[in-house]
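Summary for the lay section of the report: proteins are chains of building blocks that fold into shapes. Here we show the chain for Diguanylate cyclase (GGDEF)-like protein and then a coded description of the shape we predicted for it.
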Amino acid sequence: MPAFFQSRAGRQCVSIVVFGVTLWLLGTLLHFDDGLVTFMIGFSEYGADKLVLALGIAGAMSFIYSVLRIADLRKEMDLRDAAQAKADWTATHDHLTKLPNRYAFERKLLSRPILDEEAEIEDWARNVTIFSVDLDGFKKVNDLVGHKGGDGLLIEVAKRICALGNADCVYRFGGDEFIIVAFGMTAQREEHFAKLLIQAVTRPILIDGFAVEVGASVGYDRWAEGAEPLEDAAHRADLAMYEAKSRGPNHSLVFEASMQDKVAERAALETSLRAAISKKAIKPFYQPLIDLKTGQLCGFEALARWIGDDGVNIPPPVFIDIAEETGMITALFEDLLAQACSDALDWPEHVTLSFNVSPVQMEDRLLASRILKVLSASRLPPQRLEVEITENALIQDPAVAAVVLDELHAAGIQIALDDFGTGYSSLAQLARYRFDKIKIDKSFVATYRDDERQEKIVRAMLGLGRSLNIKTTAEGVEEHGQLAFLLQLGCDIGQGYLFGKAMPAAEASIFISDRNASLASTA
Ligand code: C2E
Ligand code: CA
Ligand code: CA
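The coded shape description reads as follows.
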């Protein structure tokens, strides 16, 4: 039906015209016109003919006016429709990539399908697969090429994903996460498509003359159409994607029920971690740091230990990770640091306390003042504290990291660069920040004998430390052979199972007296 007849004004106009024509026909049939002529002739000297002419013209003018008003109204409605459509688009699309967003997905705007060439058209409605894609290392690229460059990368990634399928079936769920809805795929085809997605995303992308690369983790699952909302399938695809991500970059996995169990386990762990922090059940243990030139104990590194209610030891990387993600890290850190500072007061003055700071904490502008507050409450001199940070902790927010490190240095606290050689852009960081110590990661100490290249790297790292006048610590010293090699290369400090594992405070005190006794007997 034409738009004109759809509007109320249009319908009224038609009704009036029909009514007018009916009246005219009736008038003609009943010869009203003859009566009118007679009437006008009779009264023409009083100007009735002119009055009828005026009424006729007025009628025509009103008609034209009405038509114009209707046209105006139509235009107004078109504008309103366009504004509505624009608002709708804005609410359901991502501005950067122009892809539909999570809201569009939730409204199930599934339109034209990505079809597997082999699949029958009528199959698609019964066979929907949701792919969840998350970029690996996007943050690093963002830091490298800036936010504008990062935007350019996301646009290119979106284009590449769309090129594999259909733009209407690709959604950006915010950040670096995309959802693809595919139809009519066999299990083999799904696996193949997931690999294609990874290939498409990981090809180098040229941004401002830089060829940058990101990885991609992909998870996917079928939608049980009719039995569940589409979001449930997307949630399972997400779980599979997280599992794929935990296996390293560029993995793809189909959802399995065990992944759901893992999530439940993690949620339970989060609850018990919260309880453990409030009960102060997580304790610092102390691993000795040995001055390799004198054989003397020169410090202890505090390492968090958590024995769960069931007596099982939960590894620090597991609970530190959860504490970081849930924001519990600050409370845990302050508590552990306070315990460690009070333990360190019992040690000889030359024995320092090394304490790990996680990357997330380095984004906290108040980190230095938090540390200083704990120090002053415990009365441990700042010179006896060494903060260990990893290379990755410096790239999240380099400006904040620089301020925090300056404040710590100004207070007299030492800074060690931990896990040296395993992170990101180590040399650039050595040039930019002032470190008092570098800790060579245990992976180098463990492999230097089997791999000549690793040996050369260890030599180079120790040489670098010497020339920059920064002390070096070798981690993971487990054997006498390794100790001899490190001594020969002039490494300053050793840490590892050869000297001692991390131990509770009481054992650390015994370790100190035993070590002193054995040094005295060998002297
Ligand atoms: P890290 O800072 O590199 O700590 C050294 C890790 O190496 C410790 O593992 C230690 O037990 C282990 N280690 C020491 N000597 C040897 C050895 O000879 N051989 C082998 N194979 N391993 C050795 P741990 O205690 O499991 O801690 C793992 C990581 O968890 C730490 O790595 C650190 O990044 C983090 N972490 C531990 N405690 C804390 C904490 O209180 N705060 C923060 N932010 N992170 C912590
Ligand atoms: Ca450390
Ligand atoms: Ca380390």
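Put simply, here is one thing we learned. Residues 268-522 form a domain with the TIM Barrel fold (CATH 3.20.20.450).
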